[in-house]
Write a structure and sequence with these properties.
Blueprint lengths: L17 H11 L9 H14 L13 H13 L2 H16 L8 E10 L9 E3 L4 E10 L5 E8 L4 H5 L1 H9 L5 E4 L6 H7 L4 E4 L16 H9 L14 H17 L5
Parallel strand pairs: 1-5, 5-6
Antiparallel strand pairs: 1-3, 2-3, 3-4
Amino acid sequence: MTKKKLPFTRAHFRGLTTAQEQFIKKIIDNGRKRKYNLLQVAQAILRLSRTGLQWRNLEGDYPPWQVVYYYFRKWQADGTWAQVLAALVRKERQRQGREEPASAVAVDSQSVKKAGFISLDTGVDGGKRVQGRKRHLAVDTLGLPLAMHVSSAQEHDGPAGVELLWQLEQASNRLTLIRADQAYSGYFKDCAQLYNWTVETSQKPESQQGFVPQKGRWQVERSFAWLNFFRRLSKDYKKTEASSLCFLQVAFIDILLARLDN
């Protein structure tokens, strides 16, 4: 029987189901008695990511916004968000019948405009005429994120992308191939060779206009497209690169949580 292929994104924000709560609780809750329910905190942050709601406008059954923001920063600092995302990626690869460690990845970047009053770690991407920040992403052949980094938009893809390499080493001991465009053919490629990885670069013909899917690399473009469903990511609203990176992690967590009930 053929398994039904399900979309990775949901049309609107939904609360956590029982299966999703059980999965997250194993990671974020150590059983200590607390005044506020950590699952409600996590659900509030997921809602903020999807809807673009401001922290101070968080209402309803959620804890006070100051509490929610405290745990957002705490889980950012201690790596909890990264841990939840990595666990979800492993689970999805198992569900798809793949080995947990990936053997090939695709890397690329996306430049996004910054919101007003954001000045730290920003710059101008002259090629795309974007003033803001750049999101760097490495995904497996399913489009699942294995490494990510946020930099100033003026940083070149190759040098900034080196920040993905150490993350990939931790994420997979089977990795042999990295697919990328020509921007990664210099310094990035040299650094990847230190890990004994092959970097395969390609570029669409200059005569072709618009988006042209490239073999082995279209998955990373699709992963960036998934982020369009999250209003918090429509621009870079965070003061620091670290917080911007954290909301990328939260968005992918939301995407993968939807798979737990299927």
